[in-house]
Amino acid sequence: MLAWLQRVWVLALGVFAATSAALALRSGLPWWAALVIALLALNLHAILLAVEFVLLSRVDPGPGLTRPTAGDLIVAWWGEVWTGLQVFCWRQPFRADALPDYLPPSGPNRRGVVLVHGFVCNRGLWNPWMGRLTAAGVPHVAVNLEPVFGSIDEYVQTIDDAVRRLEALGGQQPLIVAHSMGGLAVRAWLRDRDSERRVHSIVTIGTPHGGTWLARFGLMPNARQMRKNNEWLCSLHASETPQRLALFTCFFGNCDNIVFPAMGARLPGADNRHVAGVAHVHLAFQTQVIDEVLQRAVEDRGRLATERQRTGLRV
Question: Could you give the domains of the chain?
């Protein structure tokens, strides 16, 4: 459903840009001015992002975190504009099913990865990840969370099904990687299915673990569940044990234009890692984040292979 909606949006944006340029030319403006108007129309999201960064700049990121400079925000804004064009105008609307899940015959030394996207996204977000995971021989499943604007609790079964698909390969406990709201869906899955023993570890990227200031404008059920200190989030946190929280590594940033203040993306009891100068969607494609996941996915495989070679066993 989301891919279809985003295709309509891209088409409507193109029509709006072409119409704006045509009207500019008819009014007597030079061609270059019409081109500038068309580009501005095509990049309405850049203007919206700029508003988000202005709001972000006015919010204290939290204890121990430095407020980003104007230069930091401009660089982060540009990175988010370019990344957003790729994700929301190409990968998600037109390439969501371009790369299938990778489920090769497995063995005891294989660890798979479950990829869970965030709010108003689909599995197309993960296309660059899926390419790298496949090249590294890492089994993986990328989910689509639906209904798009439903409750986060409704995504539990989808995550459970993905984990079961990797479990069926007979490999090791899978690793879960979640962006934004997806991290809350994973926490809900752990709560409902009591599944600590079924997962190796969990990496969240820009997840509003403590809520986000921006969610006050959200009207959909899942958006309301991301408001700061709301009842759903408080209840979720109250259900979590130190052992469960220790499974998490949380990447967050002080230039996140969606999850702010930045401290809202930290999870008490988890391994929280700050990535400076990077915005919300762009954060999911940082080398240090992807490399961390790849290392975890293959570390046991490499250790087992080394042990087998040392003992003369066939790998």
Answer: 2-94 (no CATH), 111-302 (3.40.50.1820)
